């Protein structure tokens, strides 16, 4: 498959994306981050994709020092052989996640102005599910005005049981900044910091850099299916992996890192790091 490119954001809730592979890293400067992302995108846009892959998207944090890639796939069997055929930094190892639960606050959702990626370090699948339910309950119980500008919160669980990732969509940077100063944010922090065996790592607000998606993976537009699709999304508040998926241990590191050959002084892995 040959990917096409656009600047539109991905559909984080697409039903056929059974696997999500996330990698992010720090750089010394905004220019370094852009150079890395341009390099990675060039390789992904020119290499033939395995049939499993559905989308590739890259992001840059608002401070210009964090780069992130987010890959959606129907499975993970062909991802690693494909990535190993690329060059550094595109061949960096990623954390493998499964969709777990999403909450959609605006239906139909507007075009996001930014995404906020928050990560939790947890002790096993039971803690993964517990923290997700607790955070979503806090969002749902907050007054609507407290979450103004939040479009969705999409939670993913790592297959090795050590991570939870929240890929949240917001209408704008300003809306997210207002949330950070509000009561809903304070309530969410109290919840996440009070749960045993759950350790919030932090969050990053990012802007989309590039989206690649094979034309064949985009469902043909069908107006008659619009209402059905919206109802399916409303009901899809929980997508829980099978017990086999929960027990499965991936061969990836517990958090996104960089492959061999990347200067250690230039970038630091996120493992064990506390973000603001």
Describe this structure in words.
The protein has 276 residues and is α+β, with helices and mostly antiparallel strands. The chain has one domain: 2-Layer Sandwich (Alpha-Beta Plaits), CATH 3.30.70. The chain has helices at residues 30-46, 79-84, 125-141, 173-180, 183-194, 226-235, 243-247, and strands at 3-6, 19-26, 53-61, 66-73, 95-104, 114-122, 150-158, 163-170, 198-214. Helix 3 packs antiparallel against helix 5 (183-194). It is globular and about 45 Å long. Mean pLDDT is 82; it is low at 218-276.
Summarize the structure.
By secondary structure, the protein is an alpha+beta fold. The protein is 27% helix and 30% strand. It has one domain (3-220): Alpha-Beta Plaits.
């Amino acid at each position: 498959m040959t990917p096409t490119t656009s600047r539109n954001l991905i559909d984080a809730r697409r039903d056929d994306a059974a696997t999500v592979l996330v990698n992010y890293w720090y750089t010394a400067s905004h220019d370094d981050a852009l150079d890395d992302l341009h390099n990675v995108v060039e390789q992904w846009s020119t290499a033939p994709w395995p049939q499993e892959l559905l989308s590739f998207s890259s992001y840059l944090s608002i401070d210009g020092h964090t780069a992130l890639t987010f890959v959606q796939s129907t499975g993970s069997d062909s991802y690693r052989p494909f990535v190993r055929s690329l060059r550094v930094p595109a061949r960096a190892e990623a954390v493998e996640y499964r969709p777990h639960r999403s909450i959609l606050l605006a239906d139909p959702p507007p075009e996001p102005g930014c995404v906020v990626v928050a990560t939790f370090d947890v002790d096993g699948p039971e803690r993964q599910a517990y923290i997700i339910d607790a955070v979503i309950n806090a969002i749902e119980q907050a007054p609507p005005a407290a979450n103004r500008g939040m479009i969705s919160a999409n939670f993913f669980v790592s297959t090795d049981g050590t991570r939870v990732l929240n890929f949240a969509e917001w209408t704008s940077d300003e809306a997210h900044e207002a949330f950070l100063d509000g009561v809903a944010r304070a309530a969410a922090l109290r919840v996440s910091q009070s749960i045993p065996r759950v350790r919030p790592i932090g969050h990053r607000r990012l802007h989309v850099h590039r989206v690649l998606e094979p034309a064949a993976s985009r469902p043909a537009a069908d107006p008659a299916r619009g209402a059905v699709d919206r109802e399916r999304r409303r009901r899809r508040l929980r997508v829980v992996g099978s017990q086999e998926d929960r027990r499965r241990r991936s061969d990836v590191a517990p958090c996104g890192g960089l492959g061999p050959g990347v200067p250690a002084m230039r970038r630091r892995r996120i493992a064990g790091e506390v973000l603001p």
